[in-house]
Amino acid sequence: MSISAMSRTVGPTKALPPGRYGISGLLASEWTKLRSLRSTMWTLGLTVVLGIGISALATAETRAHWSSMSLGSRLSFDPTSTSLIGVFFGQLTIGVLGVLVMTGEYGSGTIRATLAAAPRRALVLAAKAAVFGFVALVIAETVSFLSYFLGQALLTAPAAHTTLSSPGALRAVAGSGIYLGLIGLVALGLATIIRHTAGSISAFLGILLVLPILVHALPNSLANQIEKFMPDQIGASVVSLHQSDAFGAWTGLLLMCGYAVVLLVAGGVLLVRRDA
Questions:
Q1: pTM over 0.85
Q2: 3-state helix, strand, coil in the chain (%, to 5)
Q3: In the chain, fewer beta carbons within 10 Å around the N or the C end?
């Protein structure tokens, strides 16, 4: 049978319909990937254990030595920030998870399949940031409130303690959870730019742990101006009820939002321009 006869028999070839996907499909895909990673459960579990456990240890230790503390130490004691001290340890694990959410796909090579199925790369990153950001915020707020309630329960009389109705307490507790979630998005943005797990984690830890040491070595007048822009100082101002030289709590959180947005946008631009 000739080709022309076959074409008359089979009929004209129809083009395959173009694939269609939207943000809802990408969100579902990213949620499936996030919850199927073993590293997700490990890092989120460590965030909960470190955040709550270290806060409980700090408040229990303070209560045990309350009677031997000086009058000045008692008057300057901030029970709210003490019960939230575990947040600063939890930010390390939530940041590592933010890195792995992106670099895990590059390490395994599955990023090619992801971008082949969803060529709109900026939308892929937006979905990834939305899913991870939501999970990080829920876990962070859970850790923050549980740490606070447990810490205040351990600070029994005569030790000073607060309640959520105390001035600034609710802001500090809720704000520390927001801060922890934003730290995770900062790490995700760094990972999108760097694309390598070791390099991204090193950069993230360098910003949190090494950069403050370097800035502290500068002359005091210059160091004081720079330190208030750094994440560790912003976090300290968020959890504290006492006034400091850093930005106010909400101003600091807006600044952290700016850091996360800038890094994610820069990562998105590079994601679009570079090969997978």
A1: yes
A2: 80, 0, 20
A3: N
